[in-house]
Amino acid sequence: MGDIVISKTQVYFWLAVILLLCGIISWVPYLIFDIQKPYGMFTFFLNSIGLVFGSLSNNKLVAWGNLLMIFSVIPVVIFVYLTKGYIPM
Fold first, then answer.
1. Best label site of 3, 18, 38, 80, fewest CB within 10 Å?
2. pLDDT tens per residue across span 8-31
3. Which of 78, 64, 74, 87 is nearest to 17 (CA)?
4. 54-57-59-60 Cα dihedral, nearest 10 degrees
């Protein structure tokens, strides 16, 4: 049987992608289902780790995606203010 060889950069890449998706999903309850819980604040923690994994995987796209998700709270606050008229913090 053939051995499957997985390099560290592949593992770091997939961890960064998973953390990027988790960061995106953490905003879903707040923006789509209007659940007023601060799940979106997980992006600071999750995507910071994803940024490190993305840079270790030598994939700039995933690293930049995680970096943008760290600062995603700013456009979300602007969106909520424009659509609902208040800032829920």
1. 3
2. 889 999 999 999 999 999 888 877
3. 64
4. 50
Domain extents in the chain: 8-84
Gap between the Cα atoms of 19 and 34, Å rounded = 23
3-state SS, residue 5: coil
Q: Report pLDDT digits (tens) over 38-69.
A: 777 888 899 999 999 999 999 999 999 999 99
d(Cα 54, Cα 20) in Å, to the nearest integer?
A: 10
Helix, strand, or coil (residue 17): helix
Distance, CA of 64 to CA of 51 (rounded, Å) = 7
Q: How far is CA 18 from CA 26, 58, 62, 67, 81, in A?
A: 12, 16, 10, 14, 29
